[in-house]
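Aim 2 progress. For Histidine phosphatase family protein, the working sequence is reproduced below.
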Amino acid sequence: MGVIYLVRHGQAPMHAYSTDPVPADAPGLTDLGVEQARRTGLELARQVPAFTAAVSGGLARQVATCAGVLAAFGEVHDGPLPEHVVDPGWDEYLIPALPGGPTPDMYRSPAAYQQVLDAALLRWTAGAADSDETYAEYQERTSAAVDRAVELAGSGQTVLAVSSAGTITALIARLWGVPAQAWPTLARAMVNASYTKLLVGRRGITVVSMNEHAHLSAADVGLATFR
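Predicted structure tokens for this construct:
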């Protein structure tokens, strides 16, 4: 039986959700996001002796989080770290491209941003096709990425996969039979740099835990954020 640890990216700066060009040297995470990734790496090091593979989406916030988790993991374990492989299949849907989706300036108001995003996601899952990627195409792309991670997990292997709230919960929704229209409810509950544990066996994928973040929300830590 194999294991996949799905980690949501740490807190990202506002430019991550913009359609404007981003300088090549722009950070993928805020300072808080960097610390969140580090804390998650240390937490996973308490539970896992080694990762046999590490993948992330190609978005800057996902790549930076994976690198941060692995670096912190390496602070605890002396063994070699796996090569960090970028798989764009784990990328999040493009928020600015959603029909009627939120604009970057709304990001400063979390409640307003979420309300507009949820409405846009409902239209998208219902079949609105005026975005760069339809919901069906998104499902196909992310499902293929999951299949590749399952192959890496194999028997007795432990895989680290870093993605985003939408992509992680889209997988959970499929596994649990949650209707597409209810999927955003799962996504908005995801904490930055939380982790979800999956077992991979002959019967497929089993969700063992979801959105674990006690290492971030403890009173003496206070690093838990949703955006």
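The chain has one domain: 2-93+146-217. This observation will guide construct design in the next reporting period.
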